[in-house]
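Archive maintenance. Older records in this collection stored only the sequence; we are now back-filling the structure field for every entry so that each record is complete. The fields below show one back-filled record exactly as it appears after the update. Entries are processed alphabetically, and Reelin domain-containing protein is next in the queue.

ARCHIVE ENTRY
Title: Reelin domain-containing protein
Organism field: Haemaphysalis longicornis
Length field: 158
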Amino acid sequence: MTKTPLVLVVLLVARAAWGFPDGAPVGSCDSFMPRHGTTAAQPNPTAPYAVVQSKAHYNPGDIVTVTVTTSGPSFKGFLVQGFNPQTREVIGEFLGGPGVHVVPQCSAITHENNRNKKAATLNWKAPLGNSGPVMFRATVVKSFTEFYANLLSQSAGY
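Back-filled structure field:
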């Protein structure tokens, strides 16, 4: 075996072991499941994480603050997306900022690094053409083998 294929194999194996330290891949947008091999999501009722939104109804161009938080163990990553709870249509867009990476292909936002986090505060911009209800779904990753998929948001004050 030549050195080039061997180096490529080592890099691919390392990538699989480390997961996605720089954010969820675009391929995760369809299922909101991390690409962590055969590892299954933990049951949502046991999730130590919460997704809280500043308001449940938006007007054109509004900014809604979405916070992924925990009072328990820190988390390493997340993927969050806004949607209309009546139609399930993905709506709006997230604004970039420190520590986050916008995924425009699916109007989502993800982590930029895999350092431990106790909270992530995100800003979502409502569509300009209409108003209505909004909810957010999130996948939160504690470790390569422990994650919670499709957590639904709650409005602040609930």
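Update note: The chain has one domain: 21-155. The domain at 21-155 is CATH 2.60.40.4060 (Immunoglobulin-like).
Entry marked complete.
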